[in-house]
Amino acid sequence: MSQNLTRVIVTTDMEVDDMNSLVHLALYLNLLDVQAVVYTASQYHFLGDDVHTLGEVNPHWRTKGRRSYEWPIVPHEPDPLAGELREYRPFPEHWIESLWSNEYAQAWPQLQANADAAGEPPFPTPAQMIERTFVGNVAFEGDVTEETEGSRVIADAIMDDDPRTLWLLSWGGMNTIVRALMSIAERYRATPEWSAVQQRVYRKVRVMGVADGVGQDNSWLDHGRELFPELVFWRVPYMYGGYVDAKMAQPDTLPLFKAPWPEQNLTQGNGPLMARYMLYGDGKVYANEPERFQFGKHARLDWGLEGVPAMQFERGDFMAEGDSMTYIPLLPFGLRGIDDRGFDTLLGRMFLDGHPDASVPATFATIGTPSGDNPNPYLRAYQEDFAARAQWCAHAPAVCSHPAHVVEVTADRNAAAGERVDLTATIVDPDDRGFDAHWDVAVDPSSYAGVQDLSMWQKCTVDTAFIVPSDARPGDRFVLTLAVQTRAERPCTRYAQVALTVA
């Protein structure tokens, strides 16, 4: 079954928001093939090696060092004295393994039962997840000096015979991923196979979590880019999981990020796994972090940066998942954007970082932008799905919600201007409690010049018809999206998309 799932490797520096992202990801481990979770370093966290300093290992750092928590106002540029550091905000070792063997293990029987009730693939066992957890290049920010267990796992996955795309999700520094690429280059660069190996990497690998070629260190710029200059980093236009979402989420979804909703629907009454999920002011303490970054204690966000005012949050507000936006677009909710960039994902249409794409709107709003002009149409439904999924951790299928699935839908087709196109779908509702369905026009993936005028078109039925506008021109495309939401206290929504192209 895993062979049909999207193939993923996560690298994480174990920032507190990464911990939340891991807890959240655990609820969807049966919908992705997470082949490895790898500890890495970053400008924010590294463990040291008890021998060297940062400057001895990496002279090109980004960290703001101790002044990030000692100075009232923190300069934006890196700390010139950080080269003296032997460690920096070290994350708790074995945290991930402990999560799998304890909280995830306690939730696993109910997660498994609910997956079976939903007709979904099984969840990996706690033992399997422990086996898939590796230590990468954690000693220093940007450290690529040696191969590690984690870097070898990544390199092996890149070079194996699995034909699936390999998504490398960077939740920290790029250094462990870069070390894997360097190892491949060291093996092949001086051989006649080098050009073919480069092309293999370009075809197979997708990187998410890096913007403008820069992750949470400079390792790609310093070491990786010269080896694989055509490697492309992928991005999505809509964010998820920012530290300010409880104040600045888009209007239709803001109540689902503000207290008391996260406590009532996520962390309370859903067992030990969701109890590990941190909210502002909930009393949780992050080991080895200075007071400034203990958001569970004081609910105050203060980076100390000039021009970035401190914010006080309410106890129980959504805190952060800074890296979930790398895997949410990959979830199989029925949107087609992972396979075809002409369609949506849950976080908008994917685009290639650093590669201008005229088909991607330049005016996408982000969750951190207080604007209602262009909200993410899938965000509220996804947050509701998160709540339904959280309940799976501690409750029997009979009291939980499970998504209805679109198992068959009208195929993509050509159509003439003015033509009536019948739309049909077959839906399986495992809970048999009923669902609501509606068709609408997905504005951003459609290319018809008057698509904004169609944005209010909606048919609240599974089987309906769409009339192609009479002024549509050859080549115009209409993407019609079917949304199916279960009738439940914690609803789940799934989708199907159909493309009509004017002949």
Question: What does this protein structure show overall?
Answer:
By secondary structure, the chain is of the alpha/beta class. Among the domains are: 234 residues, Ribonucleoside hydrolase-like (Inosine-uridine Nucleoside N-ribohydrolase, Chain A), CATH 3.90.245; 100 residues, Immunoglobulins (Immunoglobulin-like). Helices cover 25% and strands 17% of the residues. It has a seven-stranded mixed β-sheet. Strands 11-18-17-14-15 form a five-stranded mixed β-sheet. Strands 7-8 form a two-stranded antiparallel ribbon. α9 links the parallel β5 and β6. The longest helix is centred in the first third of the chain and has 24 residues.
CATH topology of the domain at 2-235: Inosine-uridine Nucleoside N-ribohydrolase, Chain A
CATH class of the domain at 2-235: Alpha Beta
Structural class: alpha/beta
Strand % is: 15-25%
Shape label:
globular
Average pLDDT rating: 94
The CATH superfamily name of the domain at 2-235 is Ribonucleoside hydrolase-like
Number of strands: 18
DSSP summary: helix tally: 14
The proportion of residues forming helix, as a percent range, comes to: 10-25%
Query: Low-confidence parts, pLDDT < 50 over ≥5 residues?
Result: 358-371
Task: Tell me the major beta sheet.
Answer: 7 strands, mixed
Under the CATH scheme, the architecture of the domain at 2-235 is Alpha-Beta Complex
Distance between the termini: 38 Å
**Neighbour order of strands in the largest sheet:** 3-2-1-4-5-6-9
Radius of gyration: 23 Å
